[in-house]
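User: What would this chain look like folded?
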Amino acid sequence: MKAYVFLTTRPGTSEEVIKHLKQVAKVKGVQSVDSVYGRFDAIITLDAPGLEEIGDLVYKVIEKIPNVTRSETSLVLSRKK
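Assistant: Here's the prediction, encoded as structure tokens.
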């Protein structure tokens, strides 16, 4: 199952959060971490066996990162092969 997690951080802390996320990217299931401009500060791409694993990554790993103020997760409905 693939998902995108959109993060908002405290003002002035996005680079610190991105550095931390790139270390977290070594966690199984985290495919990429990108800093972005716009409504969100970062986008994380997850790929995990199922919804439970996605939930574990979001709630037990990503949302525990200091200075992350909000996350929004979008699940991929279908994948083209």
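The mean pLDDT is 89. If you want, I can go into more detail on any region.
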